[in-house]
From TrEMBL:
Pathway annotation from the record: Purine metabolism; IMP biosynthesis via de novo pathway; N(2)-formyl-N(1)-(5-phospho-D-ribosyl)glycinamide from N(1)-(5-phospho-D-ribosyl)glycinamide (10-formyl THF route): step 1/1
GO biological process: 'de novo' IMP biosynthetic process
Gene3D superfamilies, A to Z: Formyl transferase, N-terminal domain (3.40.50.170)
Residue ranges the record marks as coiled coil: none
Keyword vocabulary terms for this entry: Purine biosynthesis, Transferase
Protein name (record): phosphoribosylglycinamide formyltransferase 1
Keyword Glycoprotein recorded: no
């Protein structure tokens, strides 16, 4: 039997997809060892899910980097690049074979992507819709509900099995994306 795939998971929220990976791994249905869960939000419930499963966790906050730079476009860019470079160092230290962004609400820059590419570490980004399908940030509870309903109404979720696309602004690219049914038809009450 092959060794389990060493996996680092990046999250920002409740960690429901993380829990699915934890469950499938503990049931022997997924040959994976989650080596660390990293969140950019201190109160992300996914960190608690990981701790309950005895998985090491890390909180990595962009705010700390923003405080070190002026609130100018250049300062914000410098802060984000420093944050991403440090995130890459944190991930590389665990020597994963794969990184899964499971609800990670941060656009990763080349300062993160390039070191992982050099180390031949693949990245998967799980996203609730195909790129460009529902553009814009979700900034309030009602907008979140509206966004969720639009994903439900379309009936498709998106996944990038080929890896994270470094050219995120090119949202019309579709060759690496695969759709799958969400299984929500007839569940308007949920």
């Amino acid at each position: 039997m092959a060794d389990p795939v060493r996996l680092t998971v990046l999250i920002s929220g409740s960690g429901t997809n993380l829990q699915a990976v934890i469950d499938k791994t503990s049931q022997g249905q997924l040959s994976t060892q989650i080596v660390r869960v990293i969140s950019n939000r201190k109160d992300a419930f996914g960190l608690e899910r990981a701790r309950k499963a005895n998985i090491p966790t890390q909180y990595h906050n962009l705010v700390k980097y923003k405080k070190q730079h002026p609130a100018t476009p250049e300062g914000i860019l410098a802060a984000r690049e420093e944050y991403d470079a440090e995130l890459a160092r944190l991930v590389l230290a665990d020597k994963p074979e794969l990184v899964a962004c499971l609800g990670f609400m941060h656009v990763l820059s080349p300062r993160f992507l390039e070191p992982l590419e050099e180390a031949k570490i693949k990245i998967i980004n799980l996203h609730p819709a195909l790129p460009g399908a529902f553009n814009g940030a979700v900034s309030s509870h009602s907008l979140l509900l509206s966004f969720s309903f639009r994903v439900y109404a379309v009936g498709l979720c998106g996944c990038d099995p080929g890896g994270l696309d470094r050219y995120i602004s090119d949202s019309h690219r579709t060759e690496c994306y695969r759709t799958c049914p969400c299984g929500l038809a007839g569940r308007e009450d949920r």
